[in-house]
Design a protein that fits this description.
There is one protein chain. The chain is built from 8 helices and 13 strands. By secondary structure, it is of the alpha+beta class. Strands 2-3-11-8-13-6-5-4 form an 8-stranded mixed beta sheet. A 5-stranded mixed beta sheet has the order 1-10-9-12-7, with no helix packed on it. β9 and β10 form a beta hairpin. It binds Gibberellin A9 (J5X), 2-oxoglutaric acid (AKG) and fe (ii) ion. The site of Gibberellin A9 (J5X) has 14 residues, from β13 and α8. The site of 2-oxoglutaric acid has 12 residues, from β6, β8, β12 and β13. Its EC number is 1.14.11.15. This is gibberellin 3beta-dioxygenase. Keywords: Coiled coil, Dioxygenase, Iron, Metal-binding, Oxidoreductase.
Length: 372
């Protein structure tokens, strides 16, 4: 652990999976704590080949294309990941969030630790939330923002004049608004591709009180510093995202998605494209038609890579179940209903097998068909 973290920890006991390596003082070797050399045996992925495929083209969907709906449905069913062009998010806003992230991560470690994510909290600076599921540390640092960024930003830029944190907050809020708009549009398209009409107020399932609540939106900024030996380190271990889907902006190559029978495929950092990953809750909602996509982030020796991840999910306590329209005598409900909150608890205990825990067996009639 780096000296700043050490001092901090001795005063505030913390689990060690929150603190990133002190990248400011990284030498020319990857420490043992960060060396990924044993097979993970997660997600039933065959790890015999380290090869990353660059020749297989991932679906790229132009939202202005008249066939966008069909292409998008196809991409969700076959890949669980796709890239969108003409998404309507202003390019200068994307550049701005990139430079604000860069400004944040280039603060001295000591400063970033002032906004460290406390145990049990979602927002703040630290290792990615999923680090606790892996035996080795990741070559990255992240900053998670749930709700207003103001409180966190004040910790990062405390004594200076307002300009420092207000610029950051402005850009975050603006980006979040654009992401919300785009996500709602994508959600409608994805559901339409399944024959679901989102005008129906109950399409996400029902909350305990029956009232409509806001969907939850969360931003995570990731930073992957240059690494002296990228083959031995991991930026972000293999995982699926838990919400309905995530929208990712990356500044350079490093994102890999896994496809069965194919292997790890690189997601190219196309100019002006955003990457969408189907998450676990969409798998439940779509009754297994759209499977969440396993992905990871690699690091490199020359370029500091950044990514910005927006999570689009339901309110934490709203039950998500397979949509009624996707359940019929030939398609029984595969998963039991679950709230995002319950699902995160399940995932905390069964990281790569969380969805399997929701699989239910239903009684079938004599003809082998499901009776609703
Ligand atoms: C509400 C959530 C969803 C979490 C856990 C918890 C708080 C932060 C979320 C993320 C944000 C970034 C990707 C992810 C994979 C991560 O590492 O932290 C997400 C994870 C999940 O989708 O499970
Ligand atoms: O850095 C990336 O490209 C991916 C980040 C990611 O998957 C995540 O934060 O969940
Ligand atoms: Fe992810």
């Amino acid at each position: 652990m780096n000296p700043v973290s050490e001092t901090y920890v001795s005063n505030h006991p913390q689990p060690n999976h929150i603190f990133p390596l002190d990248f400011e003082s990284v030498q020319d070797v990857v420490p043992d704590s960060h060396t990924w050399n044993s097979p993970l045996n997660m997600f039933n992925i065959d790890e015999s080949s380290k090869h990353v495929i660059r020749s297989v083209a991932l679906p790229v969907i132009d939202l202005d294309d008249p066939n966008a709906l069909e292409l998008l449905g196809d991409a969700c069913q076959t890949w669980g990941v796709f890239q969108v062009m003409n998404h309507g998010v202003p390019l200068n806003l994307i550049k701005n969030i990139e430079s604000e992230s860069r400004r944040l991560f280039s603060l001295p470690t000591e400063q970033k630790l002032k906004a460290v994510r406390l145990p049990g909290e979602v927002s703040g600076y630290g290792l990615a939330h999923i680090s606790k599921f892996f035996p080795k540390k990741m070559w990255s640092e992240s900053f998670c923002i749930l709700g207003s960024p103001v409180e966190q930003a004040r910790k990062l830029w405390p004594d200076q004049d307002e300009a420092d944190y207000s610029k950051f907050c402005e850009v975050i809020e603006e980006y979040r608004n654009e992401m919300k708009k785009l996500s709602e549009r994508l959600m409608c398209l994805m559901l339409s591709s399944l024959g679901i009409n989102t005008e129906d107020p109950n399409w996400t399932g029902s909350s305990s009180t029956g009232e409509q609540k806001d969907t939850l939106s969360l931003l995570q900024l990731n930073s992957y510093p240059v690494c002296p030996d990228p083959n031995r380190a991991m930026g972000l271990g293999p995982h699926t995202d838990s919400p309905f889907f995530t929208v990712v902006h990356q500044t350079g190559p490093g994102l890999h998605v896994h496809r069965n029978q194919v292997g790890w495929v690189e997601v190219p950092p196309l100019q002006n494209a955003l990457t969408i990953h189907i998450g676990d809750l969409f798998t439940v909602l779509s009754n297994g038609r759209f499977m969440s996509c396993v992905h990871r982030a690699a690091v490199n020796q020359t370029r500091h890579r950044l990514s910005v991840v927006y999570l689009h999910g339901p309110p934490m306590d709203v039950k998500v179940s397979p949509l009624m329209k996707l359940v019929d005598p030939d398609h029984p409900p595969l998963y039991r209903s679950v709230t995002w909150k319950e699902f995160l608890d399940i995932k905390a205990k069964n990281f790569d097998k969380a969805l399997d825990q929701l699989i239910q067996t239903v009684e079938l009639g004599e003809d082998g068909k499901y009776i609703a």
